[in-house]
Design goal:
The complex is a heterodimer of chains A (about 180) and B (about 140). By secondary structure, chain A is mainly alpha-helical. Chain A is about 80% helix and about 0% strand. The longest helix of chain A is centred in the last third of the chain and has 28 residues. Chain A is elongated and about 65 Å long. By secondary structure, chain B is mostly helical. In chain B, helix 3 packs antiparallel against helix 6.
Chain lengths: ~180, ~140
Amino acid sequence: MTSDQQLVQDVLNGDASSFKVLAHQYERLVFSIVGKLVGQPKEEVEDICQEVFFTVYKKLKTFKFQSKLSTWITSIAYNQALDHIRKNRPDLAELEGNEWENADSQTPETLLTAANEADFVKQQVAKLPAKYKLVITLFHLQEMSIKEIAAAMESNEGAVKVLLFRARKLLKEQLAQYTLETKHT
Amino acid sequence: MRELSDEEIQALLDAGKPEAMPDGNHIEDFQLYQNLYQSLAEDDTEIPDRFASKVSTELYYQKERKAALAHRIINGSLAIGLFALAFVALRVFGFSTTFMPEFLLQNKAFLFVGAMALLVIAATTVESLLQKKSLASVDL
C-alpha cells in the first residue's frame, strides 16, 4: 500500500488528523492551479481552494486509485476554478486557439509595465485562457507528465501537447517583443 | 545548416537536453525559450498560514453542524410524536374527568405546560447523549 493509499484509508476511517496531512500535502498543488487560473483577489482564491478540499473529502470514497491522487485532486481543482471563471470571467474561460491569439496583441506601453522578464512572463500567462494556464502550470511548475495532465483535464495527450506548444510559442514571441522594447529604452 | 523549428527547440528543452542544440541562427530563439522556461518554473504560489489546519477544522465544524441538525430533526419528530400520543391519551382515557385531581380539572393549561416541560427534558437528554457519542468519534 502506498503512502497515498494509506492516507486515504485513514481519512475514510474517520481520522480527521489524516485529512489535515492530506490537505497539507496537496495545498501547494491546489493553490498553484487555482491561483494561476483565478488570479486575484487572494481571499477568493483561498475560498475556492477550501471548497476544493471539501469536495475532495466528500468524494474521497469514490476515488479508486485508477490515477494518482494528485491527478484526481488536480482535476477537482481545475473544474472548480473553471466553474468560478465561467461565472465571473467567461471571456477567459471560453476563448480558444486563434481567437485568443489574435485578440492578444501587445503595444509597447503594455510591454513595458513589467519590472523584468520573469514578471513579464507572469503577466502574459495571467492573460492566457484557462486551459493554457493549466497546462503551463502543471507542466512547468508541478512537473507533471503530459499523460498526467491529459488525465486531469479528461483530454488526450495530443491535445495537451498542442496546447502546451501553442502557449509557449506565443509566450516566446511576446518575450522577444519585450526584450526588443527594453533594449530600445 | 538547417534551422530548428519552435517545436524542435521545445522538444530539446523538454527532454532536458539543451546541450544537444546545434549551432545556427536559431540560437536567439533558443535563448528566449530558455529564459521562458526559467520564468515559468518560478514558483510564486502563496499559501495562507495554517491553511490545512483551517480546512480540517472547518470540516469538523461542518460535520458537527450536520450532526446537530440531524439531532434536532430527531428531537422534533420525537416531540411531535409525544404530543400526538398525549393528545390521543387525553381523548381516549378522558384524564381530565376521571383520573386528575380537582385543581388540574379546573386548569387544563397546567396539563399542557407539564407535558411540554417533560418533553423538553426528554429532548435535551437525548440530544446531549447523541452529541457525546458523535464527539467521541471525532479525532482532530
